[in-house]
Amino acid sequence: MLILFLVLSSKKKNTTFSIIIPPLCIYHYAIIVSMSCQLKITKFPLQMMTLSPTSMSFDIWRETPIPMYLECYLFNITNVDDILARNNVTLRVEQMGPYVFRESHSKVNLSWNDNSTVTYYNQRYWHFVPEMSNGSLSDNVTSINPIIATVAYTLRYEPTFLKLPVDIFLRMFHDNFFLTANVSSWLFDGIQDPVIDIALHFPELPFVIPYDRFGWFYERNGSIDFDGSFTMNTGASDFSQLGNIEMWKYSNHTVFRDECGVVKGSTGELWAPELGQPELYVFASDLCTYIILSKDSNVTIQGIDGVQYSANDSVFDNGHKYPHMECYCDEVRDRDCLPSGALNVSLCRFGSPAFVSKPHFLHSDPYYPSKIDGLNPQEDYNFRLALEMFTGMPLGVTAQLQINMLVRHVTMMTLNNQLPDPDTLVPMFWFRQEVEITPEYARMARFALRLRYWTPYALYVLTVIGVGLLMAGVFVLIRRLFKSPDTTPIISETNTHDSQ
């Protein structure tokens, strides 16, 4: 099922800012459960869900057979002129979109390991669907310039004699801090910038820009190795570990310190059935960490009962309310550790000021939305996952997150210091992947679950009937024996003499 976020990554001098969450596929379980229950009613055959090259789940896991869609919403800054005129205004944005893309993805370069794991890479493609979108890829969007923001953030603690020439260099090519480009360029095509072109030829600069364009999904479409390698448990040795990521990029630890950097959780595509667990862990490679979803409520989707898990206020807390989350800061309560509600993923994204939150800063500290006009957080924007608890079958997924860039005024970096507030987390865009089990697969799942739930009772009834019939047979036999005439012995004397 799973997908996150701001990426400054290099590939032969081509690097991209990128955002995606691993897709949360929910349909293959319905097929597997249905077949399993029809083939072996009395016991749910775990081997059918254990992943192997010959298992029933393999082909569906390797290549998702159902259409999936990614909805992207971009934030357009509407009061640039007032900001540049230094009027006493608040940064104002309007949401544009959704711009909808159909997703297809498959697992490639598979290696089956001896320790009940499989190593693979994700290959993803996105195709624009205009009839499902509200707008065109040619729509222009104005936001802050991520290149300038990244350079300033990287040099924020450097001495003045280093920052001053860099500021002069940036002003040679940019009049202000804002950038206007069409949706296609912001997302997949990438935006050319003369600063990037020149910086690539001067490795002696005090900062590194290892990309030739800026784009949220630039160089991501069709890439095999962009997400990195995943080593996942197949459930062969311990079925309760099915779908859990054991290693990412051949390591069991990411860039975050302590517990926050541990590689664990499912990518959302395979779940081992486990009744009553209070929390679920979803590993998001683009965050270099996992997201914890807590048990929320009981739900019924397409006539199937399940349990919904959702992101609560512990997600992106940074240790303010939940001390175990403080490891998402470089140091305990360091100067870059922001209020709760936004996760600093700059360590994961080559030092860029990338922060992840819920859309429109839902459930975040008021510190963030107080600096932005035009936001409209809604409870529907929360990250949710519903599971059927006996089989572990996902019933519905709503994965949605927002990408922001931190803009702090930096001494001598005048081009970066044009926002009215000296410390602003600027929303750039947010995305949603929403999938729900279809009526077709729901029918299959309901049939399978009915078989599973009613089979024990049917067996009990059949047992009672069988015992009853047996007892009735014995009763009839005994009754016939006791009602036999006295002149008709049970053992014939004639037969006895004959035998002599």
UniProtKB/TrEMBL annotation:
Keywords: Cell membrane, Disulfide bond, Glycoprotein, Membrane, Receptor, Transmembrane, Transmembrane helix. One of its GO terms (cellular component) is cytoplasm. This is Cameo1. InterPro entries: CD36/SCARB1/SNMP1 (IPR005428), CD36_fam (IPR002159). It is a multi-pass membrane protein. The chain crosses the membrane at residues 457-478. It comes from the Eukaryota. One of its GO terms (molecular function) is scavenger receptor activity. It is found in: Cell membrane. Disulfide bonds join 260-327, 288-348, 329-337. Its main location: membrane. Belongs to the CD36 family.
